[in-house]
Recover the amino acids of this structure.
């Protein structure tokens, strides 16, 4: 797809540990992917697989235990200069799952939306800041008057819009959207997705879209990476992933997704992923680009099988 272009963000062999140094828990065990300008890159996996941890490590909330995060050609994980830290804080924003929990209930919308500016644009006047807040609220389809209200006065969908305004006011280039619609009523999910898509088009935004819901991702993601227990299992453009899933874990995830077209529907209950099918005792797994833009984790024996599967499909 966009392989010739420079990635906006590259994650190389990212590792994130929790717990003590003596007895660490490896939440992210060496993950690599590139995200290109203007695309929506999906990260899908079960609860606890490490999706949020990756997002938080990218925006520097969590420290990495290894690997590199490269944003616009510069390493942004680990020790970086103050200037670069300020730039990253502005240009990479996050939208959270639960609008209620992520907004400070005692602060007015005004403050919530402007909060990032207090740290990065210390020089601006109160009026300028207010002007930016009003603009950000209008950009997400809310009234400027809402600035003087409190979050609890709004519906879930409106609160998520406030969360988006809070990110937009920073004029970001890259947004980590962590389950941005999962906590919302089904009836308003599409509106929030449409808003995100609209903003992306207008501003050339790039998204890392984190979700456990493949049927949503299918419609909005250009490419999708599948994560399981802190490791990527497969990565491909959305169409390829749905048509030719290679890894048994991807196949299991997909088997639970309702398919719109009859020829893609399968009979029977969802597949169960059985990790014991992998024999990695001597033949160790690697992360391999098995066809252009299509990556899968497997050992030499499995990769040979996957190549066979692709040849048969072709
Ligand atoms: N701050 C933390 N301290 C200790 N362990 C953590 C912390 N954050 C996450 N973990 C652990 O790391 C693993 C990955 O968690 P993470 O929140 O990234 O998963 P997730 O894929 O986002 O799941 P979900 O779909 O439920 O949001 C889990 O086992 C989790 O318990
Ligand atoms: Mg999460």
């Amino acid at each position: 797809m966009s392989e010739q272009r420079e990635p906006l963000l590259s994650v190389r062999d990212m590792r994130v540990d929790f717990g003590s140094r003596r007895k660490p828990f490896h939440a992210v065990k060496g993950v690599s992917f590139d995200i290109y300008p203007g695309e929506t890159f999906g990260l899908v996996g079960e609860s606890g697989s490490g999706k949020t941890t990756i997002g938080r490590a990218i925006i520097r909330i969590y420290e990495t235990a290894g690997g590199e995060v490269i944003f616009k050609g510069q390493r942004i994980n680990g020790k970086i200069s103050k200037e670069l830290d300020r730039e990253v804080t502005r240009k990479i924003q996050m939208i959270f799952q639960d609008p209620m929990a992520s907004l400070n209930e005692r602060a007015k919308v005004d403050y919530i939306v402007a909060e990032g500016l207090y740290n990065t644009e210390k020089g601006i006047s109160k009026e300028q800041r207010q002007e930016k807040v009003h603009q950000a609220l209008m950009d997400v389809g809310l009234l400027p008057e809402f600035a003087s209200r409190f979050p609890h006065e709004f519906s879930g969908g409106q609160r998520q819009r406030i969360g988006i305004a809070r990110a937009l006011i920073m004029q970001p280039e890259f947004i980590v959207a962590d389950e941005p619609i999962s906590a919302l009523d089904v009836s308003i999910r599409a509106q929030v997705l449409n808003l995100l898509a609209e903003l992306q088009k207008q501003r050339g935004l790039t998204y890392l879209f984190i979700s456990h819901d493949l049927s949503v991702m299918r419609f909005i993601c250009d490419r999708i990476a599948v994560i399981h227990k802190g490791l990527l299992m497969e990565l491909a453009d959305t169409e390829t992933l749905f048509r030719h899933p290679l890894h048994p874990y991807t196949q299991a995830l997909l088997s639970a997704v309702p398919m719109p077209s009859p020829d893609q529907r399968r009979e029977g209950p969802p597949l169960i992923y059985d990790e014991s099918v992998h024999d990695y005792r001597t033949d160790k797994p690697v992360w391999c680009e098995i066809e252009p833009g299509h990556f899968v984790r497997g050992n030499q024996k499995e990769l040979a099988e996957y190549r066979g599967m692709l040849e048969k499909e072709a």
